[in-house]
Description:
Layout: H1 2-43, H2 55-101
Helix pairs in contact: 1-2
Amino acid sequence: MAEEEQEEDEEIDVENDKRRTHNVLERQRRNELKLSFFALRDEIPEVANNEKAPKVVILKKATEYVLSIQSDEHRLIAEKEQLRRRREQLKHKLEQLRNCSL
């Protein structure tokens, strides 16, 4: 009987060790997730100064911010292309004027 009790105690110890290990890993995972939310929050202007911002607000504002940046990017790409075409037109006109003055 004592041997069976010892085996049961060892099994309980193994289970307790597994549970402790799992709890430690889960605590680390949650902490890393929390730190990631803080890092994301600090990059979003609208919530950067709000230390109490809920996670859902951080995610919504991050989505809005990304969409805003994408919109700005598309606008700037179009503006850059327009300026490039204008520069080509002016270069062509300058070349024509140089040729006329010769």
